[in-house]
Amino acid sequence: MVFVNRLKELENLKSLADAFLKGDKSNAAIIGVRRIGKTEILMKFKDEYKDKNLIIPYFNVQRVGDTSSFIFSYVREMLLEMGFKKGAIVSRNEIADWNDLLILATKLGIEKEVRKIQEKNDIGYLFESQETILENLGYYCIYLLDEFQYVTILEKRFLEVMRSTVEKQKCIAYITSGSSIRMMEDIFAKEEEPFFGQFARIYIGPFSRKDSLTLSRKILEMHEVEADENVHNRIFQLTAGNPFFIRTVCRRLVFDFREAATPQNAEYAFLTETLKEKGEIYLVLDYIYNDSLSRAYKGKAHREILLTLAKEHGLTLSEIARRIDKPSGEVSNYLKALLRTDLIIKEDDKYYFRDPILRFWLAETYLGAGRSKLTNKTIADQLIHDLQEKYLAASVELGKAKEYEMRVKLEARYGIKLENYPEEGEFDLVGRKNNTVFLFEIKWRNKPVDYNQIHDFFTKVEKSKFAKEEKRLFMVSKEGFTKNAEVFGKKHGIEMLRDE
Predict the structure, then answer these.
(1) What single string gives the DSSP state of each residue in 258-283?
(2) Record: fold of 7-203
(3) Please, are residues 13 and 58 in contact by the beta-carbon 8 Å criterion?
(4) pLDDT, tens digit, 9 for 90 and up, residues 150-172
(5) Separation of alpha carbons 68 and 76, rounded Å
(6) Concatenated DSSP letters for 19-35?
(7) What is the pLDDT of residues 367-384, one digit of tens each?
(8) pTM surpassing 0.85?
(9) How far apart are the two ends of the chain, measured CA to CA in Å?
(10) Domain spanning 400-498: CATH 3.40.1350.10
(11) How far apart are CA 477 and CA 13, in angstroms?
(12) Which of 98, 160, 176, 282 is the most buried (most CB within 10 A)?
């Protein structure tokens, strides 16, 4: 596996481990959409961080179906790591059931404790007893819990029970990850939830152009496929920086176009993997779509809404209601459920697909009858044109990874702590320094901020609770500002920042 970038995130995890072993314990949650590289970071950390007194079990929560299987799998992974450290086991295949696990526990001198976990079959006892086991064997533990949001379907009290022991534990810390962004944020960022403020959140997003090109170069060079800069730029444009998609397109180039890696062949490789039913990207998008939809499904209405947004991006509630011929109140409830799935987002009272490539796939597979016959060059060219003009160019979401990155940059620049502020008009970031409030609006679109956007920001401030306070206003834009926006901003004291 080629590991590119994510070095900052990897160093964050290593710093967490260093501090933990010195008595300064903290936990972290890695958040990002599916196949964006979260598990890869966890496994890289597990492989690279070595300390004789530290074990790092890894466990994907999605693979278990109930509390009993969670308890067995959780204990199994912890004891396997201990067994490898102690030389009491040489293969994971030696542990298939509780009997095998008890044999290993006997070798480690903790048979009594493990047998009691099996007998009680209780989440609370599991989390309480693991500290005793670690103390008895002289180990610290950083447990990696992948797809952590699935604990919410095991039993209602799971988070409360786990939270009741986490603070008291000295020998164990947790690094969780999850691909359901809203569910993970509900778990770790809602004030009424048990884990509010207990885990540092690390957001993982798509690769930048630079990192995308580095990855595609490494893969193609590894297979001795020659490709110029135009090919690598094309791969980045087609995949929107998704590392899994980049790898998939590169592999298709290796298989089918080893002798001629051109931008056009990169396009065909992308279409083949995205629109043909056995394509790797197709299979991932199909899983994401159906798995996410299953969590919100209320009959055909949800599918109708998604297909409507696949055809027309950026519709309001009333526009969607008219398109599917249903009352606005009913459609509002459907949209709330879909927002929780991460399939769509809401910005400026309009609804969009979170992932433009998922939108493209849905439009072409469910609505584009007959267009997936990629042997027809005219059809393939039209598909690529549509992808560029209608889908990738329409992506408007700032993204939690970019939001996190911007927050870190702005905090360092102004020496201030910034937080999201959903109340009073949904300001992107808000902070205070001395007696001054700092208000930030961030636009990450592929076009300059215009007069209407900067005017709306100023109006929103004037109507907010901050109107009469001493304040500094900031508009941050990816693509700069129109002349009219600059004139308005200067006139009203709005500081305009551009981040490349």
Answers:
(1) TT---HHHHHHHHHHHHHSTT-HHHH
(2) Rossmann fold (3.40.50)
(3) no
(4) 998 898 889 999 998 888 889 99
(5) 12
(6) HHHTT---EEEEE--TT
(7) 775 455 666 777 788 888
(8) no
(9) 29
(10) yes
(11) 30
(12) 176
